[in-house]
Specification:
The complex is a heterodimer.
Chain A lengths: L1 H28 L6 H16 L6 H24 L7 H23 L14 E3 L2 E3 L1 H23 L1 H11 L1 H6 L4 H26 L6 H16 L4 H21 L5 H15 L13
Antiparallel strand pairs in A: 1-2
Helix pairs in contact in A: 1-5, 1-8, 1-9, 1-10, 2-3, 2-4, 2-8, 2-9, 3-8, 5-6, 5-8, 6-8, 9-10, 9-11, 10-11
Chain B lengths: L3 E10 L2 E11 L4 E5 L6 H9 L3 E9 L2 E2 L5 H7 L1 E4 L11 H7 L7 H11 L16 H14 L4 E5 L7 H17 L3 E5 L3 H7 L2 E6 L2 E7 H6 L3 H5 L5
Parallel strand pairs in B: 3-8, 3-9, 6-7, 7-8
Antiparallel strand pairs in B: 1-2, 1-4, 4-5, 9-10
The chains are: A mainly alpha, B alpha/beta.
InterPro entries (chain A): ABC_transp_permease (IPR001851), BCAA_transport_permease (IPR052157)
Membrane topology (chain A): Multi-pass membrane protein
Keywords (chain A): Amino-acid transport, Cell inner membrane, Cell membrane, Membrane, Transmembrane, Transmembrane helix, Transport
């Protein structure tokens, strides 16, 4: 049981930062960006490049991946999504799916299809009361939790965080109140991109890195954000834990082949029982 | 000293003008009411000053500074602050956060908040509440407080009493009247409760089809025998 909780937390820790990014973009622009998995893949390859060919420690690689993803995510908004502001959420969703394929294939073109892994020192697991925890799992969970707390603190306690929430709530009012809406939006996009880069690094610690990561992580990320309640970063983290738990239970009691479908099942259940998600607000459709 | 100057101002949405050549001068401490029938262009005039609607011609200056090239945020920072009729608070933020975020870029947020709470003391009762959960009257008061946080020179108020009970209508208009004097603000107000607004305003402009058809002392205008016809646009 405790082992299952640890496994749940490990898998939630990978998904949670990206789910927070997904919900941030949704609250700011009211569309579902399905390219999140593509950016997580970009983050994973960026971290691998800094860690293995360049020989830097993993924490430097993680920070580098966050910077790369923040820049790439901001660039994608500038080149792709900004021109489409005001279009329906469905149009933007389709464009984001196309972007996801583009990102995946750019990674395939640059790095090939071979699986890659970080250069990590070999360490044995820590065993406490017959429960085995790897040092990597401890690191992944701690870093993910810290990142979510930092983003939560930025949103609640800082002027730029308040401005971000105000712009997400009502951009035209924010504009007439003197807030620099475009700059605040760019800040939100950069924070979301950095979280996607972090998820990419964490996923590379747990799994091997290859371009197919894209769709393997996209569904759990979006499921976590929807289950947690779109618009709520804390809800996204809670949703990630719920999706992680559902996946672990599936592996334990059904078969690992059903793991991919569990995200869809949980989304369907939540949408029937609590359409706004665990901690979300009802949102206006655009 | 004139604060806000409009000369032959034309404005609208897209290619078509809704406001056709309005002239107006607003001085500190005074309140001007814009009255007229629905669709006369009153709100469009306010929005064009705030940068929400397009100015297509004429002069628009605040303290001698041309506002036309500025975005809405730039006009707010210059001192022309707009209070929309609806959705004038950030629903998901607390009242306190709504006030703080409205003083973007200012270092003395606490001092400004104290000033606003002195001018509008009722806000103290619900400072920690989420703005989305407030009543209509409380929301309008918070919207007004938010507008004051940036220490505006000119307040552009669009139907502040919409949806309020008759008792609150008078209270809100009295508050605005007092604010104009105590904060030395110029206030330009669009109000459907025309008689109530004219009782409090210093001057008034009657707009019909985007043109000023009558202007003058607010109280005198309200006493004119054809005021009702003017208000409903029959004397254009």
């Amino acid at each position: 049981m405790i082992q299952m909780i640890i496994n749940t937390l490990a898998s939630a820790a990978i998904v949670a930062p990206a789910a927070v990014a997904f919900t941030l973009v949704f609250t700011l622009f009211r569309y579902a960006n399905f390219a999140v998995g593509g950016f997580v893949t970009v983050g994973a390859f960026a971290a691998w490049t800094i860690n293995v060919p360049l020989g830097c420690p993993l924490w430097v690689a993680g920070l580098g991946a966050m910077v790369v993803c923040a820049s790439a995510f901001a660039l994608s908004d500038r080149l792709v999504f900004r021109a489409l502001r005001g279009r329906s959420g469905g149009t933007l969703l389709l464009v984001s799916i196309a972007l996801s394929f583009v990102l995946e294939n750019i990674m395939r073109f640059i790095y090939g299809a071979q699986m890659k892994g970080f250069d990590l020192p070999l360490t044995g697991p820590i065993t406490i009361w017959d429960v085995r925890i790897t040092r990597e799992t401890v690191a992944v969970v701690s870093v993910s939790l810290l990142a979510i707390l930092v983003v939560g603190a930025i949103l609640i306690l800082t002027p730029i965080g308040r401005a971000l929430r105000a712009v997400a709530d009502n951009p035209s009012l924010a504009s007439v109140r003197g807030l620099p809406v475009p700059s605040v939006e760019v800040f939100g996009i950069a924070v979301a991109g950095a979280m996607l880069g972090l998820s990419g690094t964490l996923v590379g610690v747990d799994l091997s890195i290859d371009p197919n990561l894209n769709w393997a992580v996209t569904i759990p990320i979006i499921a976590a954000a929807i289950v947690g309640g779109l618009g709520s970063p804390i809800g996204a983290a809670a949703g990630a834990i719920l999706i992680g738990a559902a996946e672990e239970l599936t592996v334990a009691f059904l078969a690992p082949t059903y793991k991919g479908a569990v995200g869809f099942a949980v989304i369907a259940l939540v949408l029937i029982l609590r359409p706004q998600g665990l901690l979300g607000d009802k949102v206006d459709r655009k | 000293m004139t604060l806000l100057v409009l000369k032959d101002l034309r404005a609208g949405y897209g290619a078509s003008d809704i406001v056709h050549g309005v002239n107006l001068e607003l001085v500190p401490g005074k309140m001007i009411a814009l009255v007229g029938p629905n669709g006369a262009g009153k709100s469009t005039l306010l929005k064009s000053i705030a940068g929400v609607a397009n100015v297509t011609g004429g002069v628009l200056e605040l303290d001698g500074k041309n506002l036309i090239p500025l975005q809405p945020s730039g006009r707010a920072q210059a001192g022309a602050v707009f209070m929309p009729q609806e959705r004038n608070v950030f629903r998901t933020l607390s009242v306190s956060e709504n006030l703080a975020v409205s003083a973007w870029g200012c270092r003395d947020i606490a001092a400004r908040r104290d000033e606003v709470l002195t001018l509008l003391p009722t806000i103290r009762d619900y400072l920690r509440k989420r703005a989305g959960g407030l009543s209509g009257g409380q929301r309008q008061m918070v919207g007004l407080g938010m507008a004051l946080m940036s220490r505006p020179r000119v307040l552009l108020v669009d139907e502040p009493t919409a949806g309020l009970s008759p008792l609150l209508v008078g209270e809100m208009l009295d508050t605005l009247r007092q604010l104009a004097a105590s904060a030395n603000l110029g206030i330009l107000i669009v109000e459907q409760n025309a008689r109530a607004a004219l009782q409090r305003a210093d001057r008034a402009l009657v707009l019909v089809d985007g043109r000023v058809v009558r202007q003058g002392d607010a109280a005198a205008l309200a006493d004119e025998p054809d005021f009702g016809a003017l208000f409903f646009g029959e004397a254009a």
